[in-house]
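step 4 of 6: structure.
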Amino acid sequence: MKNINTIFRFEWQQLVRATLMRWLLLLLTACSCYAIYYGNQSIAMQVKNIAFLEHLSDSTKQVFHNYFTNKQVADSMRFGWADMNSLYDGFTTENYLENNVAVNKPNRLSHLSIGQRDIYPVYRKVTARSLYYDGNGISLDDKYAETNNPHKLLAGNFDLSFVFLYLFPLLIIALCYNILSEEKEQGTFPILNTQPVTLIKIVAYKFLFKFLLVVALVAIYSLLGYIFSPVKQPYPLLSFLSWLIILSSYMLFWFAIAFLIVSLKYNSSVSALSLVGCWMLFLIIIPSLINNYVAANYKISSRTKFVREVGKQIGSIWEMNDSITLPVYYNAFPQFAVNPLKPLWTDKDSYDSLSKNEDIDTRYNKKLLLYHFILDQNIKAQLAVYNQQITDKLIAAEKFAWLNPAVTTQEALNDISASGYRQNQQFRNATAAYQDTVFNTTNRFIFGDKKLTLDDYKSYPPFRIDNTSINTKEVISAIALLLVLSLVFIGLGSNNI
Amino acid sequence: MVNKKITKMQSIFKKEITIAIRDKRLLILSILILLLLAVALFSGYNRFAALKAEKVELNEANRKDWETQELKHAHSAAHYGTYIYTPQPLLSFFDFGIQNYTGSSIRVEAHLQQDAQFSNAMESSGSIRFGNMSIALVLQVLLPLLLIFMCFNAVSSEKENSTFKLLLIQGGSIKEILWQKTAAYTVIALTILLPVLLMSVLVPVINGMQFRSEVLLQLLLLFLLNGAFYFIIVALSIAVSAISNSSRNALMVMLGFWLVFIILLPKYAANLGDDLHPLTSKKTLQTAIAIDIKNGVDGHNPNDARTKLFIDSILKAYKVDTVSKLPINIDGLMMQGDEDYKAMVTKKNFGELYNQIEKQNKVTQYVSFINPFIAVRDLSMGICQTDYANQVAFEQQVQAYRLYMMRYLNEYISYRTKAGDWDTKATRDVFTGLEKFTYKPLNFYQSIGNYSLLVIAILIWLALSYILIEWASKKTRII
């Protein structure tokens, strides 16, 4: 215990007195504070945009509520079709849902690890229509993505995860590169050997001190980030703890590398250069080579094939005879089946009488909903292929995880901050499920021939997604990977000392 | 005598090169860099070739889809629309630029002007933010670090080993020694650079690519650009090495420069631009466009006041009093009026967005006056035609084509079909008669024209490097 005290006190004095260290710590603090500020700004912008979307949705819905309660509606908010009768009509829900969106809100830590949040869409319009043909043409995720400056996307985000991933390893290198060589170069190495404590213990204590220091910095900056968040929603302690544990494991990984290099007992310059080389290897060379591999194996045509399929279906489904399409629908919704089958729409029906004839209007609504149902049925196979291709591409880099600790760490942080691809996949799935719910609700009114009431509108299902839950399996496997790599390096290093 | 002095001084030049070659660690690092360059070249070229082939194929398939589509009403065909894929410039294998982050295709259809969609980043995990291994990455990020490793102790170690005095005794001045060393390491950098550029000519030629003479000019400029960059780095390293009191300090300072110039400042500059000129969100723009359009003609709704004015003007032009007496189909004209109006409104709103992005990028360009790396990175993209200006040029040409296509179909409806007839199908020749889209790439001067600031920045940095060596030679103490 006494030894550890002495070494810790000595290391602390060394740290405080070294000019280089002071500058480095100052630079790191400045970078961390800026990173928190920057992340805060970008996510605050996203929060503002989401508030605007919600405002649009709310005001559209409010207009409906006002119609029902006969309140005054400003002219600018009036709809062209708005005569009172159409309010009760099943497909009016489409107008009610005009600005209805499924939103992937940022969570309390999103600004610390922005991940792909600036690229993936944060919202999608959801109505009873097909997600892929939403009344405004064919729509894939891209349509809802923010327009960005591609040069900025290329430069990347200066968020706290960048500081932790790129800059902290440099601090670790600066702290450790000369742990042994310095003693040799100063001529104090023989004195160390004469101590009653073994050399390996002294080295271990030195590393332990530095590791604790770095972990303390990680905790302090993360806590600062947590406090200065544009999202004030409470956040589960467990998720925040996993954030800290992942980062500590990542730091441990770098200490392990430093330990391995130090154990080789090169002189200071060679150790420093080798460590900078490792930094290049793990942060630039390996990730970019793996990205090349991923890029070489995947094509852009997956989307094209899907989009062409949707395009083809859009053109032909309306012309399809109801005697072909209706049975498919009745098969899925037997409760609405009509026997014998009655066509919904014939050539004799005219669009012009839609607003005048309630019967035609009802049949047209059914035809339209049926159209989107059949469209979703017909594109299902190609959609599955398309989704599979996206998934394949997304996970293509995963098989190199053991070689690629920096990216693995980044993805784990992105998971926690709801800004990575796994969380985006969850959002996509939740959106698809939500669209199902909306379709079924609208369907109940249209094919169930029910008039809508104000209460029906009010109780229309909203979109929900839990953006604070973490994928335990992914987090644990990232931590395990970092720990195993660290142990391997430490094991190799101890053999050398 | 003079000649003798020159040969003596040249021997410093030779000595530096010999030392660099004999240093095993440096040799291994150089070989590693060359290996990475080879990997970058071949994977970059394969990626370029695959993307190019795929895009050409897709463009042809889309055109074929258009020409052989089921016969339908011309307006239905306008809705059916098509997709146009971005060009793949040859030198994208050298510098991929922003291509991961820009849409690879634009949908062309009635009523709606879509922006470029289907970017690679949209379907990628966070890994993509770590970058691709490209020749540009090796040349701009890794090679400078190697040069720093080579040069940081070029002068300081002479002082530490007390060989500096020996050099001076042999008749050179400090200034000459520094210049000889700068020249030696610049030459080493160029010997790594030259084969890369030669291979960049050879690989496409071997693969049977058609080679425009412009490409040779582009490669020459890339050589000059990167060469200038290496001279700046070497001069900076030598000057720092000369005035530092130890090799270790010189290394720390140079690594600090590398970190700040190549890793920190580019990110900061891009963010600063975003801070100063924040972009309006897409939804806000779309809402603004929708409000603007509400005041305009609506293609499917002839009840609007604006539509009435439009109809009246047509009636007046044909000197008739009702629509039914018109010799043409007014539906087509109305839809075209709507297209023109929407195009105008969209251009107004999204044009502002483009301006904001240009302003953001200008901020980055100003930062290049304190950071030569930014100038090199952006100029390299500009030369390779993988920058924002080229993407914008493509998008604008596609939007112009969309307007042409809609006018073509709407005029067909106006003059060849009857009013109110939404059922009669257009004949095949209507679809095949539509001209194909051909992209006219920005010519070289247009591409580079956006970057005059950066060229000035590089020239200033070259002058600064010269001054730095001169200054350092006065500051160097002979101990």
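step 5 of 6: annotate
 - Chain B has one domain: 2-475.
 - Chain B has a mean pLDDT of 88.
step 6 of 6: archive
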